[in-house]
From TrEMBL:
It comes from Geotalea daltonii (strain DSM 22248 / JCM 15807 / FRC-32). This is Formate dehydrogenase formation protein. PANTHER family: PROTEIN FDHE. Residues 209-278 form the FdhE C-terminal domain. The lineage of its organism: Bacteria, Pseudomonadati, Thermodesulfobacteriota, Desulfuromonadia, Geobacterales. Keywords: Cytoplasm. Gene3D superfamilies: FdhE-like domain (3.90.1670.10). Residues 172-207 form the FdhE central domain. It comes from the Bacteria.
Amino acid sequence: MPNTAAKLEFLRKTVCDHPEYGEILPLFQALYQVIDGQEERTGIHFNQPADHVQEKVRNGFPLLTTEHLEIDPFQAVAFLTVVIEAMLQVSREGLDELSRLRQAIASGDLDLQPLFAGCLSRERSAVEEAAAQLEVPSPLMEFVLEIPLKTALGIYAEAISPEQVSGWTEGYCPICGSRAGMGEICGEDGKRFLSCSSCFFKWPYKRLKCPYCGNDDPDTLSYFMVGEGPTRVDVCRKCSRYLKTRDARIGNSEVPLEAEDLATIHLDLLAGKEGFERGK
C-alpha cells in the first residue's frame, strides 16, 4: 500500500524536532499532501509482460523500459496541474516558470509521453528541449515530471516480490534501472540493501562495495556519522561518490527511506563539503 501518509507524518515530526528544516521541507510536505490518497491517479501505468523476467535479471537488464510506459493524458494533466498548484503555494522562487509550465501542460502544448519516457530512461534530451522552448529550467521541469512518475513506479514496484529478481547483483535498480538513492542495513546479520531513487524498490547488495563504480577495496571505502542518528554516509574514495545509509537496527526502521533521505539533507551538505558527490 502507498506510504505517503507515513512520509508526511515523519516530515512533520522532523520540522518540529529540527526547526532548521522549516525552510526546506514545506515544499515536500505540500506535495505529499496532494499525493496522499491519489497515488493511483497519476495517469501513468506500466504494462510489464510476465515472460523473460529471469533472463533479464541474469543479464542485468531492468524489468521496465519505455515500451512498457502507458499514459492517460487527461489524468496525467489533472495530476500535474494539482502538483504545480501546490508548488506555487509554497515556493518563493520560480513562480513565473511554474506558471508557464502549468499553462503549457493544461493547454496540451506538451506531449507528455516522450517527456515521461525521457525521465524513465534517463535520456533527458526531450525534457531539455521542451524546457528550453518554454524558457523553464530543465531541472525544474524534470522535478515536476518525476513526481507522478515516481509515484507510479513506487506502486508498480510494491507488486514485485524480491524472489522475482533474486540473483540481481547490480548497483542499479532491477525494476526501473535508476541509481540507488539510499542504503539500509537490516537484521541481526547486518545485511545491506539498496533502495532505488525512483521506485524505492529494495534489493540486497554486497556490504563492502560501491554501487556506483563497483569498487570493493576496503581501504578506499569508509563512512562518517554525525550525532547519534541511524543514518550515516558511506563514501568511495575511488570515484568520490557517496550513499547515505540507514542502520535500521539503531532506529527509524518504520520510516520510508525517501522520507529519511529528505530529513538528512545536512548529511548531503557535509558530504559535499568533503568533496564527495551523490551517486548517479
